[in-house]
């Protein structure tokens, strides 16, 4: 079954390559990998949105979590149990953010084997822009021990670009997609996730560049997607905050409009009438 899955990915890459080459696209196999990556990202969009919804709900629960932390500050076991109950009542899975990554891991492994299979069949000889070959490297020998010739350094520099981009883009994506939290458990998990880019960077030094191209493309797609989602979320928050003052202003205007009109007291009316009569009397006496 696994071999069939690997064969399916290899066939998909080959089909994309033939399609792009038929319309005259240069570096067709590199762009075939990019096209394959975009298809996978589109298919996993529902999982990504669920991940973002879970992160947003966790952020909304921060006031309640802070109350629990104050209440059970001396009992970690009760605090952990209370937090899990809170997550359960809110329908939030604190580990839900890892789901899209876990589901894509079989694709990574299958793509790794598919690239090796295509390389062994002689179908992956071409490079991609500065990359000498999408089938290289197979281990870390190209960078350690260090190259001894200018040609070796140039070759190493060409193969270093994508691993560096993998680390940088993944760090940016994680910072953009990780909401601020006062939950110690969630904060610790976020800190642990920051080691993931370093781990992926190390793997990227010793796997075919075709697989690293998949990782970089996936990260860039997620980065752009996260940017627009964050903008939409900020706009929704600003609209929500702006509606409160407007409501208060309308309420105040209604109160002012419906407030009873102040009427002069009886004593003031009497004084006014007496002054008027006295004035009329003086006018008559002058006549």
Descriptive notes:
This protein is mostly helical and 287 residues long. The protein has one domain (2-242). 76% of the residues lie in helices and 0% in strands. It is built from eleven helices and no strands. Helix 1 packs across helix 2, helix 7 (150-177) packs antiparallel against helix 9 and helix 7 packs parallel to helix 10. It is elongated, with a radius of gyration of 34 Å. The protein starts with a helix and ends with a helix. Residues 244-265 have low confidence and may be disordered.
Provide a quick synopsis of the model.
With 287 residues, the chain is an all-alpha fold. The chain has helices spanning 2-22, 28-43, 45-60, 62-71, 76-90, 99-120, 150-177, 184-193, 196-204, 209-258, 266-286.
Please give the structural blueprint.
Blueprint: H1 2-22, H2 28-43, H3 45-60, H4 62-71, H5 76-90, H6 99-120, H7 150-177, H8 184-193, H9 196-204, H10 209-258, H11 266-286
Helix pairs in contact: 1-2, 1-6, 2-10, 4-5, 7-9, 7-10
- Count of domains: 1
Tell me the strand percentage band: under 5%
Oligomer designation? single chain
Q: Which structural class do the helices and strands define?
A: mainly alpha
Query: Could you list the spans in which at least 5 consecutive residues all have pLDDT below 50?
Result: 244-265
Question: In which range does the helix fraction lie?
Answer: over 70%
Task: Measure the end-to-end span.
Answer: 124 Å
Could you state the order of secondary-structure elements as H and E? HHHHHHHHHHH
- Largest beta-sheet characterization: none
**What is the number of E strands?**
0
Sum up the overall morphology in one term: elongated
Number of helices: 11
Rg calc: 34 Å
For the residues shown, what is the average pLDDT? 77
């Amino acid at each position: 079954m696994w071999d069939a899955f690997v064969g399916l990915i290899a066939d998909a890459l080959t089909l994309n390559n033939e399609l792009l080459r038929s319309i005259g696209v240069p570096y067709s196999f590199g762009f075939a990998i990019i096209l394959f990556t975009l298809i996978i990202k589109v298919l996993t969009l529902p999982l990504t949105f669920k991940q973002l919804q879970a992160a947003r709900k966790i952020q909304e629960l921060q006031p309640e979590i802070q109350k629990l932390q104050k209440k059970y500050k001396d009992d970690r076991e009760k605090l952990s149990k209370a937090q899990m109950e809170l997550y359960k009542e809110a329908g939030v899975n604190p580990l839900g953010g890892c789901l899209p990554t876990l589901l894509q891991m079989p694709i990574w492994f299958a793509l790794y084997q598919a690239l090796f299979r295509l390389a062994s069949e002689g179908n992956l000889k071409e490079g991609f822009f500065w990359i000498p070959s999408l089938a290289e490297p197979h281990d870390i020998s190209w960078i350690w021990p260090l190259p001894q010739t200018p040609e070796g350094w140039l070759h190493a520099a060409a193969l270093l670009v994508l691993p560096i981009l993998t680390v940088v883009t993944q760090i940016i994506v994680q910072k953009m997609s990780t909401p601020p939290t006062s939950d110690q458990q969630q904060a610790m998990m976020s800190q642990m996730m920051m080691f993931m880019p370093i781990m992926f960077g190390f793997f990227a030094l010793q796997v075919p560049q075709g697989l690293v191209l998949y990782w970089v493309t996936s990260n860039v797609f997620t980065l752009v997607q996260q940017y627009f989602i964050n903008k939409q979320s900020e706009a929704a928050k600003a609209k929500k905050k702006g509606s409160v003052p407007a409501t208060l202003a309308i309420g105040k205007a209604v109160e002012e409009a419906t407030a009873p009109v102040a009427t002069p007291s009886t004593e003031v009316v009497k004084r006014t009438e007496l002054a008027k009569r006295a004035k009329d009397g003086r006018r008559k006496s002058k006549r």
